[in-house]
Amino acid sequence: MSPIPNFEDISQSVFLIPYSSLDDGPEEENETDLREARDVLENDLEHGDILRWEAYQSAWAKCLDKLQTIIQKLHEPVVEAIAEEIKNAYTETFPGLPYPELPTITISNPAGGTSFLNELTNQLDRSNDEADPSSFVTHLHPAECSNIMAGMKMLITGFIDRPPDKAKTQFKRKPATSLANYDINLLNAWFAAVRNDREQRNAKVPSLVAVLHDFEQFNPSVMQDIIDICSLHIPQLPLVFVMALSSAQSPSYLHVTYPRSTLAVLRIRQFHVPFGLHALEEMLRQTFFTTTFDPDVMLGPAALGFIVDYYSRYNSSLDSLLNMFQLVYLKHFMINPLSPLVKTTPAADILSAVASYSFVDTLFGRLCTTKTSDAWREKPLPTLIIAVDEAREVFNACIRKSRLGFELMIVVNTSLASLGYKSVEPDAHHSTALLRIAIDLVKGRATKHIEMLSSLIRKLKFSEVSSFLDTLRTYYRDAPAHIRDQEGKHKEHIDHFIAGLPQEGDDQYSEKMRQLAIDIGDWLLNYLDELVQPLEELPLWEVWSTGQTPFPMELMNPSIRASTVSGLLRSHEFSDSAKKPEETNLWDLPDTGILFQRYLDSGKMINVYDWFDSFQSVLETQRRETSGPRKGSPRKRGKKSVGGGNEGKWKLQVQARFIRALHELDYLGFVKHTGRKADHVIRTVFDVCDT
Amino acid sequence: MHHGSDSSDSEDDAPCSSGAEDDVEAIPLAPKSRKRKAQDDEGRGQPIIVQTSFDAYFTHTSSRPQTSANVFSSLIPPLSSTEYTEAIATLPDQQLKSILLTDPEARNALFTRILRELKEGFNVLCYGYGSKRNLLNQFAVERCSKVGHVVVANGFQPNFSIKDLLNFIEAIPGVLSLPASSAAIESQARRIATFFSQPSQKQPLYIIIHNIDSPSLRTTKSKACLVLLASNPRIHIVASVDHINAPLIWSSSEASSRGDGGFTWLWHDMTTLAPYDFELTYADRSSISGAHGGGPRKQRDAGSLGIPNATNMSETAAAHVLASVTQKAKKLFVLMAQKQLDAVEEAGGPPANDMQPFAMGYGMLFNAARDEFIATNDTALRSLLGEFRDHNLILGEQSTSGTEMLWIPLRKERLANVLRSIQVE
């Protein structure tokens, strides 16, 4: 262990505790980590925390991998289009322009996050073969471009840091004999060397790509100048600006903020990254509600509802979505002692350990209730393991069926929506049909959707029946092999319906058609009912589903104000004191709490003297109450001895306590000083705190 | 629940709504509490119309604020730092402590959780009322130091800068072996990030920042450096915030982005109820705005940090200086003090802390000193003044007209006390 620094040293503002291992080699980091972080739950297995952690890591890695693939697929078309645009920036120019235009690409990405730009950079790198990159990329951030000199310097040094030709080493630049590194002629000279080298080898001359991150944060006047300077040096310098915007595509930030003179020198191409509910739908549908992927843990209704709500209301960024999924997983494995069972059942020797007793006991309690066969009495542990494995199989089979049911419902829904049926369109809550059905499905309330779909199908127009059946047939034809095999019976049903389509010239055409539509509706109703089963009724279901566990919202979107205010006013609830809230008096609170209560009682502006006066009177009460014969906590005894004699001392103490409490409130940001009236402060918080 | 006891308390003691000069309230307290009482009597908590903070704001803003004409600093002499320290020292320790401080089990569970989240690539922010310094230091020593390097930064100190933090991280063996493009903080931060992303670097770095909401860490530059560190998967940040508006420092994309350019904050309630004494060590306890952070005022004061309490010398300090100077120098002080007191008396008005407006010109002082036979030439007077200036008992500044203006930084009543004690001698 390294020595602990003296944290109380006021003269030092930073302390370093270097890591020093005593005996362990470098490999032991993980082990130490886990040993330090023991986290044992009630009814836990022996080494349950380690098992849970491992289960979490594999489950989340699998899920994250899938999610990232989906995101990448969403971005792919846009990324490719942009890469193509950059490649052709200087080859496809408009003829007959009075002056060359600076190619500019704006990427509007309201979903935020850097994954898109990373993919773009990777794509640009990928298209570059090692020897002759077709573009040089540099990145500019708002913090680095506070003025034009710094901005130009970052832009130029970002390019010239690499050697201009095939020489692997950068030649040394002598500051005394070369141009300043914010002079664009330096870039010109460097690029001339690049061009020479390439032309000698008959290779393509690369373009210079500058990616401007968080473009809204750049100072427009600085950027105007930089753009002007750059536009004077094209096309000798094949510069391309890529601006990452987080605002919506229309109205374009660029057009709103920059003057016409700047826009005139730019050739702007706009792109936008898919975002919004569509992105959420895709991610949910392809991860948790598909027949082609099995996540280890299914989202429960509480978590899913929260995620949809948070994403659509507060922060529709894909990164925050990933964070939420990860937190759901993390919480599931951290609080649920049964979660190690997600993928595997522990071996009998772990289950028979003493520490695992209550875990095993819980499992017995859960699984043994119905089947009290001999096997349970004779060989309890092996039977238990078999039962757990069985439960896992049952759950997986059931959830796969549900997912198939969901996919089918979405197919039917989409096809009905395309036929113009209103009741399946997005509702007033801006939640799409897919999200609504998904949430109801995990809640076990999908029946109403099934009934609705079935009744719509029964009333289909005659002309629509045939195309609807075609949609279903297509779905089965394109479904994965295991679904086709499993559901062959139902495919035959559809084929049967199609074969039964009456001919138009038939004299009983309308009766037959109506009957057919009713038959299809009934078949769908029964079929979906059979597929979609409530998960909560399965044995040990909460191992594989997060169920009703609420999402840990306070981790992402905390109410700091409310927490601080209740810390001040209801301090006793944070401590282990036995006092009930009804029993606490104002004078029981810490000083800052008392002063804050008085703050809440007052108007917009507070006279400090009057505030002091009211504070003093509470302290007087406190002194009177605590010096009485009936009570005597250590704190209060302290008061008594102070209050015993010297009145002057007491006055000083009250003043010191007032100043201390006032300074604390100031530190927390509750007070704003006003220059208008002598010794007055203004309130900053108007919360009604006692509801 | 709680308001029931509060309102009854304020009715019993009536500390706020009684008293002649007490009209602090724009809204009288009594009707409000009666209404609350009525609600309580009904037994069912939910009234039909619930007042929100918006309502409260508009109610308060619509009426003219009526406050009394009392001026705190004129009615109550400010505490000197000695008086303050003495008074606080006699107070017993606060007994009310949150569960996190008293229950090791709850604390350990929280620490484990935080450590897990850090490992999963999140960074952690702690909020809630009470100083979180000791708790986080404990976390650093007990947990982080066993798995990696730890740097603890006291962001709340006025002399703290991000450069200090980076310099300390560079003290970790090996960091300096990498080349840095320049001495600027960005390249320093970049070098640190590169160092910790090397696969050969086994130990992660834990950065504990007390009060990441402090003015010096709020700047764009500091944020850019921190985000560079935070987005590195092997550098973990645990920070505390106390200001109620602290979440506004980060945009939602900065707060939630994974990878480059994002902190990926997770928030933890870490209410400790502990007093902020250490954080407020540098606060000027003699002024009601002494702890006000940020703002232009603080910036200005930060410059004069070398002279502690320059505008507020204590009586004892003055007595010490005066005890060790010559009779002549003492006479000069008495002369100056008398003139300054007269000037304050003449100006009338509320007593101010700042004595600079009552300064006297050097020429005038010289004339007066010559008349009293204290100093007969310029050199003598300057040498007498030198002693006082060294101890900040007399301050001087060039006025716009070019003459030097001199004054004693002692409030009226204190100066009078000092004068009296000299005259008694």
From TrEMBL, chain A:
Any one of the GO BP annotations: DNA replication initiation
GO function term, MF aspect, one: DNA replication origin binding
UniProt keyword annotation of DNA-binding present: yes
Subcellular location: Nucleus
GO cellular component, one term: nuclear pre-replicative complex
Keywords: DNA replication, DNA-binding, Nucleus
Origin recognition complex subunit 3 winged helix C-terminal domain ranges (all copies): 561-686
Ranges for region Disordered: 622-647
InterPro entries: ORC3 (IPR020795), ORC3_N (IPR045667), ORC_WH_C (IPR040855)
Primary localisation category: nucleus
Residues in Origin recognition complex subunit 3 N-terminal domain copies: 42-340
Pfam family, one: ORC3_N
Protein family according to the UniProt entry: Belongs to the ORC3 family.
Protein name per Swiss-Prot or TrEMBL: Origin recognition complex subunit 3
Lineage per the UniProt record: Eukaryota, Fungi, Dikarya, Basidiomycota, Agaricomycotina
UniProtKB/TrEMBL annotation, chain B:
Example of a GO MF term: DNA replication origin binding
Coiled-coil ranges per UniProt: none
Keyword tags: DNA replication, Nucleus
Entry annotated with the keyword ATP-binding: no
All residue ranges annotated as the Origin recognition complex subunit 2 winged-helix domain in the record: 355-413
Start and end residues of each Origin recognition complex subunit 2 RecA-like domain: 107-270
Annotated region described as Disordered, given as residue ranges: 1-46, 289-309
Gene Ontology CC, one term: nuclear origin of replication recognition complex
Main location class: nucleus
Compartment annotation: Nucleus
GO terms under biological process: DNA replication
Compositionally skewed regions (Acidic residues) per UniProt: 8-25
Top-rank lineage group of the source organism: Eukaryota
Keyword Nucleus: yes
Function comment: Component of the origin recognition complex (ORC) that binds origins of replication. DNA-binding is ATP-dependent. ORC is required to assemble the pre-replication complex necessary to initiate DNA replication.
Family, similarity comment: Belongs to the ORC2 family.
Oligomeric form and interacting partners: Component of the origin recognition complex (ORC).
Protein name as it appears in the record: Origin recognition complex subunit 2
